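Hey, can you fold this?
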Amino acid sequence: MTLRAATPADLGAIMALERASFPTDAWSDAMMRQELSSRHGFYLVAEEAGRLVGYAGLRAPAGSKDADVQTIAIAESARGRGRGRAILEALLAEASARRIEEVFLEVRADNPVAQALYASEGFAEVGRRPRYYQPDDVDAVVMRLDVRAWAAARAADPDDAGVCT
């Protein structure tokens, strides 16, 4: 798997994966286009054999001490082999490089696999947003990560600090 910066040319492939991954609440093309071109965003795509198998985005305005994981999606055929973790680690490494102190995210309450991934990287639940995901009426679990603690843990275990490329 190769990770690289997302470009506007990736929009079609990203949106195909977006709609497959989030059929009831996918972002619009316009929303994603805006995210990809925002100076506050950091978006990555994961490719294998020339095919986009994942993407993710971090919103981290210049000078801010906190950031938000906007989205992460991995193609169903590519799940369960560490690709989600690799792309999340790349976002968190970027947050650390930008001197972000806290990263937040929302995850569906009915997605225990994603929640477990985030918890394994050090995210902790800090709240819930009732009926956040519409039209499904699913709560969002709000999670927070202390980026300095995450980076220190990575530095203490060099075998666990590599991003898959």
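Oh, and this one too while you're at it.
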Amino acid sequence: MGKPTGFLEYDREENNCIAPLDRLKNYNEFHVYLDAQQRAKQAARCMNCGVPFCQSAIELKGKVTGCPLHNLIPEWNDEIYNGNYQHALSRLLKTNPFPEFTSRVCPALCEKACINGIYDDPVTIHDNEYFIIETAYQNGWMKANPPKIRSDKKVAIIGSGPSGLACAYTLNKRGHNVTVFERENRPGGLLMYGIPNMKLEKQFIDRRIELLKEEGIQFCLNTNVGKDIKKEDLLKEFDAIVLCCGSKQARDINVINRDIDGVYFAVDYLTKSTKNLLDHSPMISAKNKNVVIVGGGDTGNDCVGTALRQGAKSVVQIEMMPKAPDQRTENNPWPEWPNVCKTDYGQQEAIALFKEDPRIYETTLSELISEKGKITQVKTTKIKFENRKMVPVEGSEQTLQCDLLLIAAGFTGMESYINEDFHLDMTPRNTISTQANRYQTSESNIFAAGDVRRGQSLVVWAIHEGKECAREVDSYLMEYTNMD
């Protein structure tokens, strides 16, 4: 414990942000970080609990609080406070292969379980993690460390998102020969093309990919497994296949005139925006348009932030559910996940620009209106829930101007063409079926991890799944495993 009285002496201080109207001028990350002295005070707030809920990943009422990777949080907080940054790095990397990703995009399940959060503010675990990994890169401590001994086993990993990268990293560290297949022109999966640049600048993905390459992992880009190359071809060359191809089949909306022009899935909109930023390829532009976004989650918020940077005339975000309370209610105590209203960066920017929150709650679309085949308006209807059923409110219809409609209503599992080639058992959620807490499919040499197995989830869960799957693959290949 760095300082026994730290949680009493120091208040929580988060990293600052560039003002919303200023950060809208570009697609750069917008946080301003504390210096080492200030960071030590934040680390000193950690109480080194006898039972650290922050690293325990406990499921309560269907939601998890605490880190799925079981990061050794009190240990590296102590090292930060004492200025032992290399020791802090070693403790961090023991459980998390990619803290440069999680410290940017993770919603910090660890902080929601921090015991300081009962009566005060939790420790800035998320920001402390960022400090450790970026200090390591700045000082040249992050170097390639290829395995000294190689096995003769070859593994194909399909998909280079967080689960695929974590699985590849772990198997390569064990000494197996790993090739990652990616259908896009750059590795990273949803890290590269699903998360906007202002949340995760792509140079930091490239930085880590270069280390993975130096450690011996092969990347085969612009190769769509299931189309360009088939399962049987892979099985001729590889001893095992791991499917980490995500849950990218977007959920559509059932609305009158759905097929008119100007309606796009959020995943396609965000992908094209990032590709335009990186390669100057064509994008779906919101410039001077009235934008309506269906979906109130993280993806919808990312669409808000992206549309504003493109110069949207107006932005409205439609959410079916009621607005969550601003503070925890009595029936939602610590350490349960806090069911409270979150105003994220895109919504903050919309409020700063348009002087009002872009979100409309308890609302759904009923009809799309077009002129000459292109969307011009949408009709909305208020809804209420009765006996867990969605019921429209009579007389609540409204019409909104809309030149661009983005559907951010979630995902419905794996894209169909993949299983048309692999023919694996599927769950009712259209994810690959495995035994509970296992990753081997109905075919012994084929495994699945990440969103393709568990459904749409967080980056930290994908990394966890990739690591756990790698251990199971190693056991299959070697008939035993000594991996941590």
